[in-house]
């Protein structure tokens, strides 16, 4: 076990993308970080690239597998001796029209995006409580806010996670654990590259006043803030890091002079 004075974060889905950026943000602030991911090889490469064996621990695990998650949290306790923050970031996106979404698609998206944070939170809460509490951040999505097309399973899983955030916040406050969500707008990660077609990219620009994708680092900043000592009276909230999507109604393309003729 290493020094127990340093704060410790467990970030799920941390082998790449937003999760990796969050893990790096915690490390830069002097925290110890357990990076959990289902992709073993990718995770090994990431841990090698971080090159910080004292401070970064890779854990291969599927967040939808309760036994594996229990083992992962036990490993964090054995290795670092404490836990101060859990970031439920692991997620998958299957974008399909409603009538083409299979039951398997629906079930897997729910298992990873909604049941995963439930399992990880239940497993991690006792370890968080041991050192006086801590913070949990769930990564939802702007797809939790509006019923955009192709996102029946994904959007519903994220809307469920938004409500689960409030359920957790209300019940875990007695254990000294704050629970918030970060709702990213589009970020050009491997996930986005897989499901954002050119048409979808154009659609995003039409609904985002800042007229661009977010950066992984911009998400990491919000995640770290909500876990930090600067957010000690914030719980049960969803912070949209979305370039203004949540505030927007119709009219941006017209304002920009890109509207239809007539
Ligand atoms: P990503 O695909 O680049 O990274 C997700 C990571 O999670 C991967 O390393 C993957 O291996 C891991 N993972 C997937 N299933 C897992 C499982 N069952 N157990 C453990 N790890 C698992 O995606 P990203 O864009 O960095 O997404 C991170 C989070 O942000 C997700 O929850 C996603 O839904 C959310 N989000 C992303 C965007 C975006 O535009 N990129 C927008 C809104 C919300």
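Q: What amino acid sequence fits the structure above?
A:
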């Amino acid at each position: 076990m290493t020094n127990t004075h340093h704060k410790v974060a467990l970030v799920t889905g941390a082998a790449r993308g937003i999760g990796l950026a969050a893990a790096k943000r915690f490390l830069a602030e002097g925290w110890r970080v357990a990076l959990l991911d289902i992709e073993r090889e990718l995770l090994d490469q990431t841990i090698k690239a971080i090159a910080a064996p004292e401070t970064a621990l890779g854990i291969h695990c599927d967040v939808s597998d309760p036994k594996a998650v229990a083992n992962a949290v036990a490993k964090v306790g054995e290795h670092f001796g404490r836990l101060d923050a859990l970031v439920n970031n692991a997620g998958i996106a299957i974008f399909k029209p409603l009538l083409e979404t299979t039951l398997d698609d629906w079930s897997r998206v729910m298992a990873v995006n909604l049941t995963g944070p439930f399992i990880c939170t239940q497993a991690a809460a006792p370890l968080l409580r041991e050192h006086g509490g801590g913070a949990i951040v769930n990564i939802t999505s702007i797809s939790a806010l509006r019923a955009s097309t192709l996102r029946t399973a994904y959007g519903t899983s994220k809307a469920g996670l938004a409500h689960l955030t409030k359920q957790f916040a209300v019940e875990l406050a007695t254990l000294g654990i704050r629970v918030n969500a970060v709702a990213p707008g589009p970020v050009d990660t491997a996930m986005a590259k897989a499901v954002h077609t050119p048409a979808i990219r154009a659609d995003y620009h039409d609904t985002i006043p800042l007229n661009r994708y977010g950066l992984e680092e911009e998400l990491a900043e919000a995640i770290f803030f909500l876990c930090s000592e600067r957010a000690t009276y914030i719980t049960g909230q969803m912070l949209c890091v979305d370039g203004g999507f949540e505030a927007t109604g119709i009219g941006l393309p017209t304002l920009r002079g890109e509207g239809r003729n007539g």
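Q: And what stands out in the fold?
A: The domain at 8-257 is CATH 3.40.50.720 (Rossmann fold).
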